Amino acid sequence: CIIKKKNIDQTSVATYIYGMKHEKYNTPTGLAAEIGMSRPFRHAEEEAFLNLVRTYFQLSSRGEKLFKEHGISGPQYNVLRILRGHGTPVSVYQIAAEMVTPSSDMPRLVDRLEAAELITKTRCENDRRVVWVNLTKQGKALLKKLDGPLTELHQSQLGHMSEQDLKTLSNLLYRARHPDSNTIRKVTS
Q1: What are the tens digits of pLDDT across the range 105-126?
Q2: Cα 17 vs. chain centroid, distance in angstroms?
Q3: Which SS3 state, helix, strand or coil, does residue 119 take?
Q4: Domains, the chain, ranges and CATH?
Q5: Which of 75, 70, 95 has its CA nearest to residue 85?
Q6: pLDDT tens digit sequence for 70-117
């Protein structure tokens, strides 16, 4: 048996074989250091998950503040965005299916938007269970008013990353949500 020599750190070998602890491999970095852990994470999956959670809260809090300043919530903005994207009335069921973050109480969410006169609701004549939702002029105006500040917010949060890094991040997050998918989803710009 011939073993090729590789440039391997002797400490790495000793740590692997004998389970020795070495400060170089026990010093927390990245998120572990950021949250004050005394050791690195035991599993990469745990670190990745907690990175997602921490990043979500850090980025979403500024978005929620922006929405609140305009009298709506993140999920309400999501409904308005979906309606604008369709350009025609959409059923409550379809809106629920397209939400970025699912809402367990779509009827109440839609009722609040209707009370704010940002949408209108109409029952389907053929099937009374179906409710059609349409964007009002006020809803369109609010979305237009939010477009610039929201773009600026996203750029201030993620503008330091290259377009390729952002596409890679989007693809990795897609794969995390779809573990059975072996393909990389093409992210369009």
Answers
A1: 888 999 999 999 999 999 988 8
A2: 40
A3: strand
A4: 1-40 (no CATH), 43-158 (1.10.10.10)
A5: 95
A6: 999 999 999 999 999 999 999 999 999 999 988 888 889 999 999 999
